[in-house]
Design goal:
This protein is an alpha/beta fold and 444 residues long. It contains 15 helices and 16 strands. The strands form three sheets. The protein has a seven-stranded parallel sheet, sandwiched between helices. A seven-stranded parallel sheet has the order 10-11-9-12-13-8-14, sandwiched between helices. The chain binds adenosine monophosphate.
Length: 444
């Protein structure tokens, strides 16, 4: 199969040739004809699958072939992204694909002055890439009208919900024309995403290019158990031992990023960090330097690293496991892209066992553990498996208590199973009632 057989027009084929894309990826092979035929789309495609071209190429073609010229302060297609970095990256790809087409493209996001964006929108743009908050600001200030909108793309929709944009999405939904084409891309499909899709999409075609919620199998993944306080030391040890050249490292918090960068720089290692507290220009500069291999180790929080696309990134290290299991898939999606192989190493301490278990359940695999000599943890990381169970050592059967015995009473003490042990063997445990909102109560 070629891009020509998918029905793409010559200016797009020429752009793809320049970029060296020879064969459509599976998501492109499925999405391009469906979008060209005007269908709504619900696509389970993780980052690295070529999803951007999957929606951008047919979108550019439709905008070139159909519809009126863009009006002032209007957009004909809107691509919503969770973060500034992803917006920038998607825009860069769209602009490359559109290089031989008479279409205008632009990206807007927060963290930078709104005025130049308002000026730029005056003439209207064919394709606008935006983060939700800034889009709403521009709309409310009358810098943008959406009545000419033909197509809406929700890129990394799961991430938008994770970042708390559901209210913004509901607001944007009210701003959109009823008649439009909508394409939703998400790495994972939670119930909330399905709910969103139910509202936003009209008879969508579902495409799924890798088994749902399963991380790319081109990435070799393993876990090194270690005590929390020894993680920095282990990282440096592994880095030297493995002669790591270019590594993207994920830490849980902004402070965690700063602390690790300080430690590495203190050892003379060429490291930099990106997180949400840093100005956009500083973040972009760090990314650019990392991409240009001027920085060896880039330490990032999940939000800051979203959308980062680096060709052939060989290694991702989870210095901390992510709190949200889906983020693990996004993180390791930074390596093993477009068919390359990559490695993802997670440094895991005993505190993180529940996160490890959630990741294994989501990705339906038990991650291999490799103990590093001299770093064996004092606090053992309990065994886990893909069933989502933290495997605990079998408990010794309890001896029945005799009443009146002189020993201490077991009064409401936490025991291994996570249940509160009854104070006396004769008292039945209270049945736990799940606290769900079961809808409006019936009036009596
Ligand atoms: P994405 O999943 O959209 O972030 O794309 C991942 C990477 O694959 C990007 O660097 C794209 O430029 C590249 N890519 C996308 N489609 C193709 C293709 N058909 N052939 C080669 N590379 C591609």
């Amino acid at each position: 199969m070629t891009f020509a057989t998918l029905g793409l027009i010559e200016p797009l084929l020429r752009a793809l040739e320049t970029l060296g894309y020879q064969t459509p990826t599976p998501v492109q092979a499925q999405a391009i004809p469906a979008v060209l035929a005007g269908r709504d789309l619900m696509a389970a495609a993780q980052t690295g699958t070529g999803k951007t071209a999957g929606f951008a190429l047919p979108l550019l073609q439709l905008l070139t072939m159909e519809g009126p010229k863009v009006a002032a302060n209007s957009a004909r297609a809107l691509i919503l992204c969770p973060t500034r970095e992803l917006a920038e990256q998607v825009h860069a790809s769209v602009a490359e694909y559109a290089q031989h087409l008479p279409l205008t493209t632009y990206a807007v996001y927060g963290g930078v002055s709104i005025n130049p964006q308002m000026m730029k929108l005056r003439k209207g743009v064919d394709i606008l890439v935006a983060t939700p908050g800034r889009l709403i600001d521009l709309f409310r200030q009358n810098a943008l009208k959406l009545n000419q909108l033909q197509t809406l793309v929700l890129d990394e929709a799961d991430r938008m919900l994770d970042l708390g944009f559901s209210e913004e999405l509901a607001n944007i939904y009210r701003m959109l024309p009823k008649k439009r084409q909508t394409l939703l891309f998400s790495a994972t499909f939670s119930d909330d995403i399905r709910l969103l899709a139910g509202q936003m999409l009209n008879d969508p075609l579902s495409i799924e290019v890798s088994p749902r919620n399963v991380a790319a199998n081109t990435v070799k993944q393993w876990v090194v158990p270690v005590d929390k306080k020894r993680k920095p030391e282990l990282f440096v040890h592994l880095m030297r031992k493995g002669r790591w050249k270019q590594v993207l490292v994920f830490a849980k918090t902004r402070n965690g990023v700063d602390a690790l960068v300080d430690k590495l720089q203190g050892l003379g290692i060429n490291a930099d960090g990106i997180h949400g507290d840093k100005p956009q220009a500083t973040r972009q500069r760090a990314l650019d330097r990392f991409k240009a291999s001027e920085v060896q180790i880039l330490v990032a929080t999940d939000v800051a690293a979203r959308g980062l696309d680096i060709e052939d990134l060989p290694l991702v290290v989870n210095f901390d496991l992510p709190i949200v299991a889906e983020d693990y898939i996004h993180r390791i999606g930074r390596t093993g892209r477009a068919g390359n192989t990559g490695e993802a190493i997670s440094l895991v301490c005993a505190d993180e066992v529940n996160m490890l278990s959630a990741i294994e359940m989501l990705t339906r695999q038990t991650l291999t553990r490799k103990m590093e000599a001299d770093f064996e943890p004092e606090h053992r990381v309990p065994d886990t498996d893909a069933s989502g169970q933290v495997v605990k050592k079998p408990k010794k059967p309890k001896k029945p208590k005799t009443s009146g015995g002189g020993g201490k009473r077991n009064l409401g003490k936490w025991v291994d199973s996570g249940e509160v042990a009854p104070a006396e063997p004769s008292i039945k445990p209270v049945r736990k009632v799940p606290v769900f909102n079961t809808g409006p109560r019936k009036k009596k």
